[in-house]
């Protein structure tokens, strides 16, 4: 490490950038294998305290403690999926009402287009039929891709719990492997990195889960007060999508507005949805995120947004969700390696509480002022 530190800055910068680009390429090419493993690693960090409690407090054998923890995790996630599916089933029962509401909104939009742009109903219908025909053609062509994607999701649902179980079961094996990779003089630094990575990711995930439930509860209550149908379902969906920073809440708001349009013909409810989302997001960004999402690693918004966009380009929604935890791990490593420390500082949120204005002295005016005296 000291040898690399002695290299010129441009060589060290090139080394870091090449390493990051190579990592992105590997993640893109192997996303179907790597991202389930990474997600399982996050679950294993999240479940580690629960495993320790079963093992040390309740005297469970270690393998049994791991198995019970993973099963409980599966039960909780399955419960959320069952609740969402059950609520969607209720929406399906109201399909006749939804269809009527959509027809009313459709005719209102057609009338507005005719009045504003002087496009006749027949021309609008002709254009819509053309778009529908093209969409059906594209959908037919993408059937194979859709089936393949569904198969990948199903496979991941099976593999992620297995990976999580194995990560927890062989935790000491993986840790000892890392120690064997480095000489003894670096073991203290490696121990510091591992402990801080575990602490940062665990606190981040716990905070994220708490934030999800609080946002879901507040949004559901707000929608109920406004009078939005399917308020509970939309609140839970908003909480889940809020796990994707910056972008998820926008998607949730669009879905809520669409669901409101299908559930009622009253357009004033859309304003209520927007107000509720605005209030909840203000509370989330200014109170929940600083207090509840208590990650030990502070990452600035600029780097966060870029990493989320890159993660989405690499692996879609999974990449967007994994972007911040992976960035936190990278920052912990960068902060504790001498020649990478400046990059860790660049990623951080290190603005001083009271920024002082920089005063620029201009010699011309200084001399003029002194001469006037």
Please outline the helices and strands:
Layout lengths: L1 H4 L3 H21 L1 H27 L4 H32 L1 H23 L3 H21 L1 H27 L1 H11 L5 H40 L4 H11 L6 H16 L4 H24 L9 H35 L5 H7 L15 H10 L1
Helix pairs in contact: 2-3, 2-13, 3-4, 3-7, 3-13, 4-7, 4-10, 9-10, 9-12, 9-13, 10-11, 11-12, 13-14
* β-strand number: 0
Outline the low-pLDDT stretches. Answer: 356-373
**Average pLDDT rating:** 80
Approximate strand percentage: under 5%
**Helix/strand/pairing category:** mainly alpha
Oligomer: single chain
Shape summary? globular
Helix content: over 70%
Order of helices and strands: HHHHHHHHHHHHHHH
User: In total, how many domains does the architecture comprise?
Assistant: 3
Largest sheet: none
In a nutshell, what does this entry contain?
The protein is mainly α.
Kindly describe this structure.
The protein has 373 residues and is mainly α. The chain folds into 3 domains: 143 residues, no CATH class; 102 residues, no CATH class; 54 residues, no CATH class. Helix 4 packs antiparallel against helix 7 and helix 9 packs antiparallel against helix 13. The longest helix is centred in the middle third of the chain and has 40 residues. The protein is globular and about 80 Å long. The N and C termini lie far apart (58 Å).
Q: What are the salient characteristics of this protein?
A:
373 residues, mainly alpha, 3 domains, 15 helices, 83% helix, disordered C terminus
